[in-house]
């Protein structure tokens, strides 16, 4: 890219890069795939006659959405053969993201998993309409549907998501308090400390990508999770340290084994108790946490 202070195409792309990345990430659930989509968007954008573009932001979002949809349809087939449970790639976010409640909720691990249950087109429509408030006409051009069809798709997606989202989104303070209680339980190893912070029907989902040892199926129920966690930790000979971090617009915990980043734990909190644990250990999904710059704002 040339110096964005003098090139209008580059300047427009750089100005909207965070928005485009966030759109791609929320459609794909993968920072690595989102980066690839941005590269593809750039290659198409530099061939566009800017004199024919009335709204550069809308045009860039349209290109990004189309490329993200193409990639999502391809990776959906890959994920069907994934070893164990697939979780979204945790994305480092700056505190400013958590201040945007709607954006933070849409990026949460819990919501990203709900979005996984939508069809590719439903997911793109939901993200563009509900998260970024894009007009139906613009969405229609991005997904290749009529505005009426997009309205129907949006209604169907909202109903699907609404049936699966938490009754009330936990505040940052509530999530941080629950995580701190969970961290203290890990350090104490006392089963009762775990049971005090975990909801009875809590679910643990863990993603090792076939590389790191994790539960291949969901672990359901507080007592089962406590046994699984204490038993697994006892088998690790190296020093384990848990540190607060921020991913996907919410507080989380990063686990270091022998001084190296080994995983990230995100949670879903309802009524002060943890109802969902999302533990990502797949090394490929931790790359951006080590080398990337935290996402700021859309």
From TrEMBL:
Keywords: Sigma factor, Transcription, Transcription regulation
Highest taxon of the lineage: Bacteria
InterPro entries, A to Z: ECF_Sigma-70_Domain, NTF2-like_dom_sf, RNA_pol_sigma-70_dom, RNA_pol_sigma-70_ECF, RNA_pol_sigma70_r2, RNA_pol_sigma70_r4_t2, RNA_pol_sigma_r2, RNA_pol_sigma_r3/r4-like
Start and end residues of each RNA polymerase sigma factor 70 region 4 type domain: 109-160
Identification of the protein by name: RNA polymerase sigma-70 factor
PANTHER family registered for this protein in UniProt: ECF RNA POLYMERASE SIGMA FACTOR SIGJ (PTHR30173:SF36), SIGMA 19 FACTOR (PTHR30173)
Originating organism: Streptomyces toxytricini
Any Pfam family the entry gives: Sigma70_r2
UniProt family annotation: Belongs to the sigma-70 factor family. ECF subfamily.
NCBIfam families xref list: PRK09636.1, sigma70-ECF, SigX4
Record note on quaternary structure: Interacts transiently with the RNA polymerase catalytic core formed by RpoA, RpoB, RpoC and RpoZ (2 alpha, 1 beta, 1 beta' and 1 omega subunit) to form the RNA polymerase holoenzyme that can initiate transcription.
Coiled-coil stretches noted in the UniProt entry, renumbered to this chain: none
Domain RNA polymerase sigma-70 region: 15-77
């Amino acid at each position: 890219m040339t110096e964005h202070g003098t090139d209008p195409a580059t300047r427009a792309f750089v100005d909207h890069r965070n928005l485009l990345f966030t759109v791609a990430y929320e459609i794909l659930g993968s920072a690595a795939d989102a980066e690839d989509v941005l590269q593809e968007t750039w290659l198409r954008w530099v061939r566009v006659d800017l004199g024919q573009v009335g709204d550069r932001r809308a045009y860039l979002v349209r290109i990004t959405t189309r490329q993200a949809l193409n990639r999502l349809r391809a990776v959906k087939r890959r994920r069907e053969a994934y070893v164990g449970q697939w979780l979204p790639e945790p994305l480092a976010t700056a505190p400013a993201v958590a201040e945007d409640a709607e954006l933070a909720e849409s990026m949460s691990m819990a919501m990203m998993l709900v979005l996984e249950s939508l069809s590719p087109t439903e997911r793109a429509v939901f993200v563009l309409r509900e998260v970024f408030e894009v007009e139906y006409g613009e969405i229609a051009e991005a997904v290749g549907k009529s505005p009426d069809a997009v309205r129907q798709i949006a209604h169907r997606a909202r109903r699907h998501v609404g049936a699966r989202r938490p009754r009330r989104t936990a505040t940052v303070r509530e999530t941080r308090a629950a995580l701190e209680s969970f961290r203290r339980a890990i350090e104490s190893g006392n089963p009762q400390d775990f049971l005090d912070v975990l909801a009875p029907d809590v679910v643990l989902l863990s993603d090792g990508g076939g590389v790191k040892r994790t539960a291949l199926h969901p672990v359901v129920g507080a007592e089962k999770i406590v046994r699984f966690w204490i038993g697994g930790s006892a088998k690790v000979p190296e020093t384990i340290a848990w540190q607060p971090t921020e991913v996907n617009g919410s507080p989380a915990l990063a686990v270091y084994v022998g001084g190296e980043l080994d995983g990230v734990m995100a949670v879903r909190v309802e009524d002060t108790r943890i109802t969902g644990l999302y533990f990502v250990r797949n090394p490929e999904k931790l790359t951006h946490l080590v080398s990337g710059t935290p996402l700021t704002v859309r």
